[in-house]
Amino acid sequence: MTIITDLVVLLAALLHGYFLILEMFLWDKPMGWKVFGHSKEHAATTKVLAANQGLYNGFIAAGLLVGLFQGAAGYDFKLFFLACVVVAGIYGAATASRKILFVQALPGAIGLLLVLFTGH
């Protein structure tokens, strides 16, 4: 069960690393326009805000990876950063797009429950 838990936590970390790349580097590129459903003009005016958002996603990914590398000693890191993922996902779903609930909050919630259940 610990391996499954670690894989779900890793998935959440990788997702947030992907969000970092999308928001910091691809926001104003065709892939960013497609993923986020915005125009070239909108992307140009919001690029700095998106990069800031991407940076925070990078911090979440880093925190989850630190928790993973610490093994059982990283329990508190995993709990804290997965809770952040869930809260951010719920807020994003309520304010930006319902899709965020499934892409971000659901994997985070599953990881959080698994960490709580396994104690790792």
Low-confidence residue ranges = none
The structure class reads: mainly alpha
Q: How many strand units?
A: 0
The residue fraction in helices comes out at: over 70%
Query: Biggest β-sheet: count, sense, barrel?
Result: none
In DSSP terms, counting alpha (H) and pi (I) runs of 4 or more, how many helices? 5
Silhouette: elongated
Radius of gyration: 15 Å
Beta content comes to: under 5%
- Mean pLDDT level: 96
Instruction: Compute the separation of the termini in Å.
Output: 10 Å
SSE order, one letter for each helix or strand: HHHHH
Transmembrane segments: 6-27, 48-69, 75-94, 101-119
Organism: Marinobacter halodurans
Keywords: Membrane, Transmembrane, Transmembrane helix
Pfam families: DUF1304 (PF06993)
Written account of the structure:
By secondary structure, this protein is mainly α. The protein contains 5 helices and no strands. It has helices at residues 2-25, 30-36, 40-69, 75-95, 99-118. Helix 3 (40-69) packs antiparallel against helix 4 and helix 4 (75-95) runs antiparallel to helix 5 (99-118). The longest helix has 30 residues, at 40-69. The chain is elongated. 30% of the residues are buried. The mean pLDDT is 96.
